[in-house]
Amino acid sequence: MAEHEESSGGVPPLDEEAAWAAIVAGYGQEPPDPPGSRPFRPIENLMLPEEDVQPEPRPEKPLGGSVVFAPGVSLTPAPGPGPRDHTPAESRDDDGDGDGGDHFVPPEPELPPADTTAKFAWLAVVGGPVLLLLAVLLQWEMTWWLTTLGIGGFLGGFATLVARMAHDDDDEDDPGRGAVV
Length: 181
Description:
By secondary structure, the chain is mostly helical.
């Protein structure tokens, strides 16, 4: 590689040796503070009031003096009522129940009754991990029956719930799945 070739545009190449020498010569020196900056304060003195801090002078004109408003808009409030003073009109109550009108009230959902097997399956699915977590938190001795009850209860309850799920694949002639020709 040629060291002193001119780069495009007629600019001589950067002298890398001189640049590295300047970097090494300036290593460890702190650059000067920018003008107008305050000197460094250690963390112990941050909560103490500063002696050299002057309160900022207030401008002679109030802020926003150069703002131009649209015609008819002023900084002083209008003498009459404004848009924030509006109150909605009283709604008519046709049905007499005092609620201010007809409102939709959704019906209470009817859940299917849960049988005893499903209740015990859910108890095992939730209770098995809770039992193991409780044993770990209270530092109980992890005996074979406690582990079997926790893990076996979860797996047995989960298998019971999966086995009792509704299977819709058996009904091939079900007309509820779309148009019947």
